[in-house]
Every structure is written in C-alpha cells, then in structure tokens.
Amino acid sequence: MTAPVNDDLWSAIGDPTRRRMLDLLLTDGVGTATSLSEQLPVTRQAVAKHLAVLDRVGLVNVTPIGREMRYQVDDAQLARAVAQLAAVGATWDARLRRIKQIAEAIQRSQQQ
Amino acid sequence: MEFGSIEREFHVDASPEVVFEVISSPVHIREWWSAETDIESVPGATGELVWGDSATPRANVVPITVLEAQSPRSFSFRWCHPNGEVATPSNSLLVTFVLTPSGAGTSVHLTESGFREMGWEAAILEQHYNEHIVGWDTHLAHLRDYLMQLITTG
Asked: What CATH number is attached to the domain comprising B58?
C-alpha cells in the first residue's frame, strides 16, 4: 500500500521532538515509549502521543512485545518524506536554471 | 507548522535589466515557471499563476501579489495564499530576487521563506505538473521557438 502523501506527513516531521525521536529510532534500530522518554526531555505520555502521530502517517512500524509497543522507522516512508523536503529546493533550482537560460539567450540575441 | 526558507545565489551572463525583465514579466514567467499569469510588475499588483492543460486549463490556480518591483535591482512577491484572501506573512510564501551587477553579467540572490507545509505543497504540485504534462524537452523546444520569435519581432 502506498501511504498517502499529504500535509500530515509533512507536519509529522515538522515537529522537532518527533524528528529527534526519529533520529533516536534510526540510531538504536528500535525503541519504546519508555526507552525514548529516557533520552528526551519529555514525559513517556508525551512520547507516546508523538509516536501515535508518526504511526498514523506511516513513518514508524509498531510491534507489540508483551505489554510494550516496539517502534521502528519505516525506511520507505521516511525516504518519501525526505524526498519531498528536497523537492522544495529542487523545484526552485529548475526554475532558476530556466531563468538563467532565457536571460542569457536574450542577452546573446541583443548583442548579435 | 514550521517556518523555513530556501536561499540560492547564481550568476547570469546577462545584464540586470534583462534578468529583471525575465523574472518579472508574464511573457517570460510563462516560460520559466510553466505558468500562465496576468501579474504586473508593480508593487501591490495581484494576479494568478495558472497551471493546466487543454482538457483542464485551470487545473491549479495560485494567487500571487507583488510586493516590490525596482527595475533592475529587486523583485519580490507573495504566493500560495488562499484564493480570495489578502497575502500576509502567515498565509503565504515570500519570494525575493535581488540583482547585483557582476562583471558583464548579474549576480542573482533568491530567497523563499514561509511555512514549509505550503512550499511542500507547491513543490509537489509543480513537480507533478512538470513530470506529467510538460517535460523539460518540451520546454526547450518552446524556448527555442520563443527566442526565434523574439529575435525576428524585436
């Protein structure tokens, strides 16, 4: 299934605490609300809420282990999010290349 | 919502006057942005950027408002604010071009700032449009025809 690409994905990684959580999950491989809250200046409850947001947009995969939930980063969805962040800069680069080409062609034609 | 910005600096082998004309006039914006527009390069002017094809000529319509137009030094505008609303720092993206003479050409400094969510949406929209409707090859062909026209009529 292709996860929907929309504002939710952007908002999910727009939050600094959630980005820090993604960093920790990427470094450690897996994490729980408890293990993450031990490494962050926020409560376990707050971490659980953030994890729910990440889960909703498909950025993490959840596996129940006993009474805890284990979270892992979904590589494909993270790659998609990163590509979209880069797209904002890339579209300006494409526009600027065209501006340069058009302006230089006009300048050359004026000098002929 | 998170505030973000993009910054680029590049050199163009053309005078600031030519570059200003290319970035600010609808006839050129049509070429480099693939968008139809009726915007005037006058502070306060409002208009639209329109993307579409023959089946749906107004598939995507995005408002644009000119803030500053000082030929040949600077051109800035806000875009992506909701249709029918006045552009403000909290509902739009701000784009600023600053042109500085550099040798025989121009140094162009671009910044775009605003809420990243909007920039993302706009980028996706444009990427989608460019990928599916107007490839860069088509663009070059258009540009060639267009320049021939400029040379013959100018």
From this structure: 3.30.530.20
Q: Token match 């140094």: residue?
A: B107
Residues of A with CB under 8 A from a CB of B: 5, 7, 10-11, 14-15, 84-85, 87-96, 98-107, 109-110, 112
ω into B72 cis (within 30 of 0)? yes
Domains of chain A: 7-87 (1.10.10.10)
With cut-offs at 50, 70 and 90, classify the pLDDT of residue A38: very high
Q: What is the pLDDT of residues A41-59, one digit of tens each?
A: 999 999 999 999 999 989 8
Name chain B contacts of A103, Cβ cutoff 8 Å.
12, 14, 18-19, 22, 106
Q: What is the pTM of this model?
A: 0.60
Look up residue A46 and give its two tokens.
């707050």
Domain containing B120 equals 3-153
- ipTM greater than cut 0.90: no
B53: amino acid identity, one letter: D
Q: For residue B5, what is the nearest residue in chain A, using CA coordinates? A: A89
Give the nearest partner residue to A95 out of B4, B12, B32, using CB atoms.
B32
